[in-house]
Design brief:
By secondary structure, the chain is mostly helical. It contains 17 helices and seven strands. The strands form three sheets. Strands 1-2-3 form a three-stranded antiparallel β-sheet, with no helix packed on it.
Length: 408
């Protein structure tokens, strides 16, 4: 039983009388809050086991150290049982929790500030229906001086713009719904926007791609070289619903997001997000470079490795096999400014998420055991500069660093 199913069954049981009978308006508000929790993928950071949803403890590694997701069940000692709705509203809109404790940006209040008070009330109502779970969590695992929360006053001054979402009156209601979901509860920019030296979003580069540990959250602007400019709305919807489309198969953190969140979104919300992303005006300025020459030694060696190890699945032309093996040819994700995710899947292998529409996720084996750092760099350099692709060559030093980071 997955997290979403167990939470849904718990809600149904509560409404049926396991806790107390809910009047229809109250039930509707709680159900709306449950859906918002799914949209925000709250379980990702606030759960470590399906039988203990929202009880906290999930480790979030940042460039400054580790933080643990908080217990947000109604437990009075270790959760939010002593909070009021005003406490919750302030945490969501201002990044200040119960008792005036300032929250770190790993809790994406910089996005949640755009959520309406009405939506926060629904989310709060849902959280109150959860089973209280006693689970002490010391969220702040950061070393000195980053563990001093007073420093967050300066961080907020540099990186936080408080304020609810303001609709663009020049755009349609559907576009504005998509903008609200992406910029607010969906907090897509938390992963997909590059960060400055303090860990805040880089001004003017919203959704242009960002480093996420051992993964690269790709550019999802309308840029045609490195973003989703060539994707159709149908491509976007298929990817968010199933984890698979003509260009890509979700892997790593995105596979988890699809599995636990976006596959469960309402059809009209997925459509709204697709409309917004295709016409949002957020376009990175990455220009297409010239591909490496075919006689470059890295290209020659990389081609030989590709035809020996990769072409059986991805084909000699890089076309892949629809919905099974990703297309490599003319693929913006292959041309990403950072090849981190490509190195990761070659070294560690990958398995796509399991969704209702596609319960068996495609998989790729690990090649760390039989390709050295230079060989991995060469084959990826070849892929990134063939079949309509053009991107910077991969540095074997980057392969070596990630290989070390991926070791248990």
């Amino acid at each position: 039983m997955n997290k979403l199913t167990s939470l849904s069954l718990g809600l149904v049981a509560l409404a049926a009388g396991a806790g107390h009978a809910l009047a229809q308006p109250e039930y509707d508000q709680v159900e709306k809050g449950r859906y918002l929790a799914v949209v925000g993928d709250c379980t990702a950071c606030h759960s470590t086991a399906p039988d203990k949803p929202f009880s906290g403890g999930f480790r979030i590694d940042t460039p400054f150290g580790a933080l643990l997701g908080a217990n947000i069940t109604p437990d009075k000692e270790t959760g939010i049982g002593n909070w009021t709705f005003d406490d919750f509203q302030r945490a969501m809109s201002e990044g200040i929790g119960h008792g005036g404790k300032r929250l770190y940006g790993a809790m994406p209040f910089t996005a949640y500030t755009k959520m309406t008070r009405e939506d926060n009330q629904a989310l709060w109502a849902y959280l109150q229906t959860l089973q209280p779970i006693h689970n002490p969590v010391e969220t702040n695992q950061l070393p000195f001086p980053f563990n001093i929360r007073l420093s967050l006053i300066g961080w907020n001054w540099l990186n936080f713009n408080q304020g609810a979402f303001t609709p663009n009156l020049q755009k349609s209601a559907q576009w504005n719904r998509g903008a609200y979901l992406v910029e607010g509860p969906g907090h897509c920019g938390t992963c997909h926007t590059p960060k400055n030296l303090t860990g805040g979003d880089k001004e003017g580069q919203f959704l242009a791609g960002g480093q996420l540990g051992a993964w690269w959250a790709p550019d999802i602007t309308a840029n045609e070289h490195t973003g989703i400019g060539k994707w159709t709305e149908e491509d976007l919807i298929a990817y968010l619903r199933t984890g698979v489309n003509h260009y890509d198969i979700a892997s790593g953190p995105m596979a988890e997001e699809v599995e636990h969140s976006s596959q469960h979104w309402k059809a009209e919300d997925l459509q709204a997000v697709a409309v917004y992303l295709k016409d949002s005006g957020h376009r990175s300025d990455t220009k297409a470079p010239q591909p490496l020459a075919v006689d470059d030694p890295r290209m020659v060696t990389g081609k030989a490795i590709y035809f020996d190890r990769c072409s059986a699945c991805h084909n000699s032309s890089g076309s892949g096999e629809k919905n099974i093996f990703p297309r490599l040819a003319d693929n913006p994700l292959i041309r990403a400014s950072q090849p981190t995710s490509l190195i990761n899947v070659v070294l560690a292998g990958s398995r796509g998420g399991s969704t209702d529409a596609r319960p068996t996720g495609p998989a790729m084996p690990s090649f760390a055991w039989n390709l050295d750092d230079q060989q991995v760099a060469n084959v990826l350099t070849y892929i990134r500069n063939s079949w309509g692709n053009a991107a910077a060559p991969v540095d074997p030093g980057d392969v070596k660093a990630l290989r070390q980071a991926l070791k248990p």
